[in-house]
Each structure stands twice: as C-alpha cells, then as structure tokens.
C-alpha cells in the first residue's frame, strides 16, 4: 500500500503492528485522491515547491503519524477504534504547514466500536460507510438517500460523538 509492504497473513480489519503513512495527491472536485508512495510525495512536492519537497514530505509524514497516534489512543480509551483517517494540510502565508479542512470526523475516518472488534470481516462502524453501502446496494438512485438511511447515519455520528466526548450533542 503506497509503496509500503504490509505483513503477510493479514486478515480483513487486522490491526497493523504500527500505523502507516499513506500520502495521496489531492484530486479535482468529484474525483478520488490518488494514493502515492512517500518517495512519489517528495517528487510531487518538489515540483511544486522547489527545494522544499523532502522537508515538507517528512513533516507531513511525522505530523500525520503523531496526530493519528495521539487521537487513536484517546479514542480507544473512549471505546472507539480509529481504523484509518485522513488529514489535509496546506501552507500559511509564511510557508508553514497547517492543518486544513476537517479531521477525525466520521466523514474523514473509519470509526469502529472497540467492543466486539473481531478481525476477519468488516466491522460495524460509526462512519459514512453505512450510507455508502446503501448507495452501492441501490444503484440508480441519483445519490439520494431515503430518510431512514439519513437518520441512521446521523444516529451513528451522534453515537460516536457521545462516546468520544462523554456528553450528548
């Protein structure tokens, strides 16, 4: 994955020995971001920011892994596994990396309940996968979700919020 060799024998939803950093390029609106290797990210950034590609790539990797580890540890203490997540970064006016856009939401992460976690199959989740699954199972719907699917998705998001914060929204 992204140039990283994963351990042999992994089952679906297995925990990796260590979190991995999987960079991607930002796609145009409506397209999917493209996963790339760390070295490709260095080249990508170097073309856009001459003399800064490696520095930015290393900072992006280090910041991403540090944020993920800290937040995953907290979430786990509250009963949620953050299976994966994405962080989006930009540059401020001084060329410093800054977090941009959302982070650690059910729209940008896969949140699984720790209670009942069992590798080897897909996991129940508190994220948008529920809505995605419905859309895949119901083609030709013009991306319109029925009210009950919308409500169940909202309920999942609220449940994750309450577990993470310890209070209702």
Q: Helix and strand layout, with pairings?
A:
Layout: E1 24-25, E2 34-35, H1 38-48, H2 53-77, E3 80-85, E4 88-91, E5 97-100, E6 109-113, H3 129-137, H4 147-165
Antiparallel strand pairs: 1-2, 3-6, 4-5
Helix pairs in contact: 1-2
Helical residues, percent: 25-40%
Instruction: Report the principal-axis shape.
Output: globular
Strand order of the largest sheet: 1-2
Name the CATH class.
Answer: Alpha Beta
The total of beta strands comes to 6
Number of individual domains = 1
CATH superfamily: ATP-grasp fold, B domain
**Would you identify the CATH architecture?**
2-Layer Sandwich
What would a concise description of this structure say?
By secondary structure, this protein is an alpha+beta fold. It is 38% helix and 14% strand.
What attributes characterize this protein structure?
169 residues; alpha+beta; D-amino Acid Aminotransferase, Chain A, domain 1; two-stranded antiparallel sheet; two-stranded antiparallel ribbon; 4 helices; 14% strand
Descriptive report:
This protein has about 170 residues and is α+β, with helices and mostly antiparallel strands. The protein has a single domain (about 25-165), classed as ATP-grasp fold, B domain (D-amino Acid Aminotransferase, Chain A, domain 1, 2-Layer Sandwich). It contains 4 helices and 6 strands, in the order E-E-H-H-E-E-E-E-H-H. The strands form 3 sheets. It has a two-stranded antiparallel ribbon. A two-stranded antiparallel ribbon has the order 3-6. The protein has a two-stranded antiparallel ribbon with strand order 4-5. A hairpin with an 8-residue loop joins strand 1 and strand 2. Helix 1 crosses helix 2 (about 55-75). The chain is globular and about 50 Å long. The protein starts with about 25 loop residues before the first strand and ends with a helix. The mean pLDDT is about 90.
């Amino acid at each position: 994955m992204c140039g990283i060799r994963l351990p042999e024998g992994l089952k679906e939803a297995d925990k990796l020995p260590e979190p991995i950093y999987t960079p991607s390029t930002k796609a145009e609106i409506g397209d999917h971001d493209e996963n790339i290797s760390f070295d490709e990210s260095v080249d990508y950034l170097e073309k856009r920011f001459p003399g800064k590609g490696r520095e930015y790539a290393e900072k992006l990797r280090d910041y991403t892994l540090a944020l993920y580890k800290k937040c995953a540890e907290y979430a786990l203490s509250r009963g949620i596994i953050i299976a994966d997540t994405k962080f989006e970064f930009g540059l401020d006016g001084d060329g410093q990396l800054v977090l941009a856009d959302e982070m650690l939401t059910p729209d940008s992460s896969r949140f699984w309940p720790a209670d009942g976690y069992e590798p080897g199959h897909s996991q129940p989740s508190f994220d948008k996968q529920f809505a995605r699954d419905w859309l895949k199972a119901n083609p030709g719907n013009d991306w319109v979700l029925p009210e009950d699917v919308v409500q169940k998705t909202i309920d999942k998001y609220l449940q994750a919020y309450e577990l993470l914060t310890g209070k209702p929204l």
